[in-house]
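Sample entry (334 residues):
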Amino acid sequence: MRIAVVGLGYWGPNLARNFDAIASSELAWCCDPSADAREQVAARFPRAHITGDLAEVLADESLDAVALATPVATHADLAVRVLEAGKHCFVEKPLAQSVADAERVLAAADEAERVLMVGHLLEYHPGVQMLKELTGSGELGDRIYYIYGNRLNLGKLRADENALWSLGAHDVSVVLYLADEEPSEVVARGESYVQERVEDVVFCFLRFPSGLSAHLHLSWLDPHKERRFTVVGSRRMATFDDMALEGKLSIFDKGFDQVSRGYGEYITRTGGIVSPQIPNVEPLRIECEHFVESVRDGRRPRSDGASGLRVVRVLEELQQSLDASRLQRHGSRS
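Predicted structure, serialized as tokens:
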């Protein structure tokens, strides 16, 4: 499969590296308007054609697919352009900045009958896949009570997107992947401490029809660097800690057991902690291989366009809640 990577800033070279290393794919093109970015990539991938013009890439009739790692605001328009050119499309998360734009991309993929995949990277992490197996198998109990995630860092300030869209796309995709349903209620609250009207800390609450709830703490203004999910079930609990060097996944045999001799009486249970071995494989390699295989076999990828649309829908609803909260605060001050 001949593939092009468009967007050679922070993440694009990582995509190029992986597609170049996969035996069943060929990195045919690298594209970016920046001459400096093109120069750096040209030295690393001498067999690929280098250009700053997307039209030149799409004119290559032998090209099968395009991977987009461009700024978020360009995702929808460029994805439509790629699909209308008859190429399969991989687009980094989030798929778009609005539900309307995401639906436009899905319509283009259906019309062109091409594979559309969104780069929800954590869904391909072996630790998250194992966490998904635990939640679905009943290992944590016959019911999952709640999920919470922390994505924190003293990170890069952004002016074009807030912490919800910059960080939340990762965590919302994981929560939806684990829950296997869309929320019936979402609430978001945030604050803009460093830059006006750009929330650098956001707290999200999601409630699902099954009774499952989820909480997300997103911030690039924090002394801790955390990328952690905790799932609390009726029998056991589990934590995925992406920052841990070892033992990224831990299963805790903790909970409440009902006392057999009495009605409505419970005692706490504190058992052992198990950390299953997780394959030491780069999640991005798994993700890129999945895209290549999906195109080759003509099957729908795990993080397909519909999955990307669901994530954008939840992010948009959370943003609406965030906006309403901001307006309410400003109104009360006036």
